[in-house]
C-alpha cells in the first residue's frame, strides 16, 4: 500500500462509495484483470458488461474481497479494505453480494436464511434478527413466504430472498453478479423490479448484467470490459446508443 493512499484525505462529499485503484488479478499465471480503475458515487448504479471471460465478474468479486486482488487497492467509503489488517467479514457485511445461483441453505426457511448473517456477523439477538429478516423479506414482496424452504419457492422468489439477505445487513452497497441469468424469462421481472426499487431509494449498486432495457432505465454509468481491461465507460445511454470502441459495438450488436 502506497504512502500516497494513506495520506489521501479528500472531503467527505467527494469520497466515492466504492473506488478501485489499479486492480490486477492473476490466476495461475493468467493475467485476468489488467489495472482496473473505477469510482462509484454514493447512490449510483454502475453496470459492468462484456463477453464471458472478460473479467467483469472477477472484478466485482474483488470489490468485497471474495477474490483478493493481486495488486491494487479497493476503498469503501474512503476506507482501504485491501489492507490485510482489515476484517474481511466486516467488509462483506457492509458490501452485500447477490450471486447468479442464490446460495441459499436448503435446510433453512427464507426467514432463517436472511437472519443467519444478522446473528453470526452483526451479532444481533435471534429475536431481533428475525424481526429484521422479516422486514427485509417484506421489502422484496415475500412477507407471505417467511416459513417456506428454498425448494418451495420459484427461482425469482429465491433470488429475492438472496436480495433480502443482503438488505437485512443494512449494507453500504450491493453487488449483483448476473442476478437474472439463471431465471426463467417470466421470473426475470420479479428480480429486476426489486432492483429498480432499490435504485430509486438510493442504494449504491454495481451490477453485472446484459439486461439492456433494465440498465437503460436504472444504470447511471456503464463500464465495458474486454480481455481484463476497461475499453469504454460513460453514461449508460451514451455507451448503449453511441459506443466509441469497435469491440463495444460488436458486443452490443450481438445482444440485439
TrEMBL record:
<comment type="similarity">
    <text>Belongs to the ABC transporter superfamily.</text>
</comment>
<keyword id="KW-0547">Nucleotide-binding</keyword>
<dbReference type="InterPro" id="IPR050086">
    <property type="entry name" value="MetN_ABC_transporter-like"/>
</dbReference>
<dbReference type="InterPro" id="IPR003439">
    <property type="entry name" value="ABC_transporter-like_ATP-bd"/>
</dbReference>
<dbReference type="InterPro" id="IPR027417">
    <property type="entry name" value="P-loop_NTPase"/>
</dbReference>
<keyword id="KW-1003">Cell membrane</keyword>
<dbReference type="GO" id="GO:0005524">
    <property type="term" value="F:ATP binding"/>
</dbReference>
<feature type="domain" description="ABC transporter">
    <location>
        <begin position="18"/>
        <end position="252"/>
    </location>
</feature>
<dbReference type="InterPro" id="IPR030679">
    <property type="entry name" value="ABC_ATPase_HisP-typ"/>
</dbReference>
<protein>
    <submittedName>
        <fullName>Amino acid ABC transporter ATP-binding protein (PAAT family)</fullName>
    </submittedName>
</protein>
<dbReference type="GO" id="GO:0005886">
    <property type="term" value="C:plasma membrane"/>
</dbReference>
<dbReference type="InterPro" id="IPR017871">
    <property type="entry name" value="ABC_transporter-like_CS"/>
</dbReference>
<dbReference type="Pfam" id="PF00005">
    <property type="entry name" value="ABC_tran"/>
</dbReference>
<keyword id="KW-0813">Transport</keyword>
<keyword id="KW-0067">ATP-binding</keyword>
<dbReference type="GO" id="GO:0015424">
    <property type="term" value="F:ABC-type amino acid transporter activity"/>
</dbReference>
<keyword id="KW-0472">Membrane</keyword>
<keyword id="KW-0029">Amino-acid transport</keyword>
<dbReference type="GO" id="GO:0016887">
    <property type="term" value="F:ATP hydrolysis activity"/>
</dbReference>
<dbReference type="InterPro" id="IPR003593">
    <property type="entry name" value="AAA+_ATPase"/>
</dbReference>
Amino acid at each position: 500500500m502506497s504512502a500516497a493512499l494513506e495520506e489521501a484525505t479528500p472531503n467527505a462529499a467527494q469520497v466515492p462509495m466504492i473506488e478501485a485503484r489499479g486492480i490486477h488479478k492473476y490466476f495461475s499465471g493468467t493475467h485476468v484483470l489488467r489495472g482496473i480503475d473505477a469510482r462509484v458515487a454514493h447512490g449510483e448504479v454502475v453496470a459492468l458488461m462484456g463477453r464471458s471471460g472478460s473479467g467483469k465478474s472477477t472484478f466485482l468479486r474483488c470489490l468485497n474481497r471474495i477474490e483478493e486482488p493481486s495488486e491494487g487497492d479497493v476503498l469503501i467509503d474512503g476506507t482501504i479494505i485491501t489492507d490485510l489488517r482489515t476484517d474481511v467479514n466486516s467488509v462483506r457485511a457492509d458490501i452485500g453480494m447477490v450471486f447468479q445461483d442464490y446460495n441459499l441453505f436448503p435446510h433453512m426457511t427464507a426467514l432463517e436464511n436472511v437472519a443467519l448473517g444478522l446473528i453470526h456477523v452483526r451479532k444481533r439477538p435471534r429475536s431481533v434478527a428475525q424481526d429484521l429478516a422479516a422486514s427485509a423479506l417484506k421489502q422484496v414482496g415475500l412477507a407471505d413466504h417467511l416459513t417456506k424452504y428454498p425448494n418451495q419457492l420459484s427461482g425469482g422468489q429465491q433470488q429475492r430472498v438472496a436480495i433480502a439477505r443482503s438488505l437485512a445487513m443494512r449494507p453500504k452497497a450491493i453487488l449483483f453478479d448476473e442476478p437474472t441469468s439463471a431465471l426463467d424469462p417470466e421470473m426475470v421481472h420479479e428480480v429486476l423490479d426489486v432492483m429498480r426499487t432499490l435504485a430509486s431509494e438510493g442504494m449504491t449498486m454495481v451490477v453485472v448484467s446484459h439486461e439492456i432495457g433494465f440498465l437503460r432505465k436504472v444504470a447511471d454509468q456503464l463500464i465495458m470490459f474486454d480481455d481484463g481491461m476497461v475499453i469504454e465507460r460513460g453514461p449508460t445511454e451514451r455507451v448503449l446508443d453511441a459506443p466509441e470502441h469497435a469491440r463495444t459495438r460488436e458486443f452490443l450488436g450481438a445482444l440485439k
